[in-house]
Amino acid sequence: MTLKTAIIGCGSIAQHRHLVEYRSNEETDITAVCDIVEERAAIAGQIYDAKTYTDYEELFQKEEVDIVSICLPNHLHASVSIAALEAGAHVLCEKPMATSTEEAERMISAAEKNGKKLMIAHNQRFVKSHRKAREIVRSGELGKIYSFRTTFGHGGPEDWSVDGKDSWFFKKDEAFIGAMGDLGVHKADLIRYILGEEFTDVAGFVENNAKDGITVDDNAVCMLRSESGILGTLAASWAYNTAEDNSTVIYAEKGMLRIEDDPDYSLVASYTNGDVINFQLGQIQSNESGGQTNTGVIDHFVESVLNDEQPLIDGHEGKKSLEIILAALESGETGKIQSLKKG
Hints:
This protein is of the alpha/beta class. 34% of the residues lie in helices and 24% in strands. A nine-stranded mixed β-sheet has the order 14-13-12-11-7-10-9-8-15. Strands 3-2-1-4-5-6 form a six-stranded parallel β-sheet, with helices on both faces. It is globular, with a radius of gyration of 20 Å. The two termini are 36 Å apart. Pfam families: GFO_IDH_MocA (PF01408), GFO_IDH_MocA_C3 (PF22725). Residues 130-258 form the GFO/IDH/MocA-like oxidoreductase domain.
């Protein structure tokens, strides 16, 4: 069975990731593309031999598609995802999945009501070093986990977004949240995945202190406490101007893990008994190195649909990671530690 595929939004994330990865997947056929900028949709349609639209509602009316990728500004994620689910398609939505908990819950409800898959494109769970780190933590060989630091920063979306400095990424009414939504939510999802537990408290310092003329945050540092008492920091930045930093370090009773923190080894495990194990698992892909064109996200989504299996990052998982950055934003505004509700 070949899955008829539609991509809504033909900007950078679609051009460099979704479209490329769907074309590489033998189980999918790119049937339609849609973008409010007609020229952008036309170019993608020509390259991928797909029908082009400038109105996603018209696309859903005229095309019977099996799966849809939502590659739009953050404020449209929920409404367009729900429209696609209501139209009978399985949905892969870019992160952050929504701009509020309520929106996320409506997306989850729409997926459940229509019997369709909803997956959020948190690609860091598919990185080999991250998967190996999770395996080591789960094995218990590090003993009790004490703390962590996780960071995602680069110079900003100017060089990545198709609209450059005029990108929606910098506009609060379209993005809702800046570096925290673009990068921080990735690390919130990742640290939950590696540690295998949820967070209960969040303190956030969220600022716009690096870029002029933008209405969202470009630097944020958060402090997190997990349900078992693990403490750590999460940093997200559009002001790491010399090099991208996508590293995570785990500190534990019997050793530490340095993940994507060494120039030669994607994972370094150091133990208190003196052992050091260097893992060469392939460096994490970055925008600087030509983009991420084999993240595993699309392949996993397609496989989940074909095998009728729950995606690794379903709506519930996406909502939990979203809630961490929403709590950080609230903490930054109020100056108070935010408690995360369970469930």
